[in-house]
Automatic annotation (TrEMBL):
GO terms for cellular component: nucleus. GO terms for biological process: mRNA 3'-end processing. Belongs to the CPSF4/YTH1 family. This is mRNA 3'-end-processing protein. Component of the cleavage factor I (CF I) involved in pre-mRNA 3'-end processing.
Length: 220
């Protein structure tokens, strides 16, 4: 019967090579790619924001990757980039990638268990700013999206407390003509109307002065 020989079959547990800390620090070698994200790490401040610094056992997500979507290869366990991947390696339902099957066919066979985002194709079309202001000259042939909303009565009076979260429409008057900028205290006078001061003076004049003077006779 063969006997166990520690020289031929050494036990690697508890033994570390001298260069392992360097590989762990610089390249993340040996770290679990599915380890949780550090709650103390702030991307704007760097590793100094974490008490453990570069030796933290949890994941430090750089700022350039903080607003990315979840890696679709990581979801299937096929990503080989680990911490150097430009996408997120975390289950964040708000940053999941778009479901390609739903975007192409309009339905998904995995609903409601599908983890990917189901985005309505109509929502990808930009809103028509002319229609939002009140009128679109292209009408139904417009390539942009026409969103029909009831005008917000609070916004039309001057202020809406809900702001952009209001379910009613807030028209944006971007193209304001000079005619629309005329103030109420300076009304436009019509040519056939007399000024207010002349009308007041006419009322104060006697009736004899109000009569028109006799016409001059033509000389022969």
């Amino acid at each position: 019967m063969l006997q166990y020989n520690p020289v031929i079959h050494p036990n690697p547990k508890g033994k570390r090579l001298k260069f392992e800390p360097f590989l762990r620090k610089e390249y993340g070698l040996g770290l679990d790619p599915d380890r949780p994200i550090c709650q103390f790490f702030i991307p704007q401040k760097g590793p100094s924001s974490c008490p453990n610094g570069v030796n933290c056992p949890h994941k430090h997500v750089p700022q350039m990757y903080s607003n990315k979507i979840v890696c679709k290869h990581w979801l299937r366990g096929l990503c080989k980039k680990n911490d150097h991947c430009e996408f997120l390696h975390e289950y964040n339902l708000r940053k999941m990638p778009e479901c390609l099957f739903y975007s192409k066919n309009g339905f998904c066979t995995q609903t409601p268990e599908c983890l990917y985002l189901h985005i309505d194709p109509q929502l990808k079309i930009a809103e028509c700013m002319s229609y939002n202001r009140g009128f679109c000259p292209d009408g139904p042939e417009c390539t942009k999206r026409h969103v029909r909303k009831v005008m917000c009565p609070l916004y039309l009076t001057g202020f809406c407390p809900k702001g952009p979260e209001c379910e009613f429409g807030h028209p944006k008057f971007d193209n304001i003509t000079p005619r629309m900028r005329i103030r109420a205290e300076k009304p436009v006078e019509k040519p056939d109307e007399k000024p207010e001061q002349e009308a007041t003076n006419d009322k104060k004049r006697p009736a004899s002065e109000m009569r028109s003077p006799p016409s001059k006779r033509s000389r022969h």
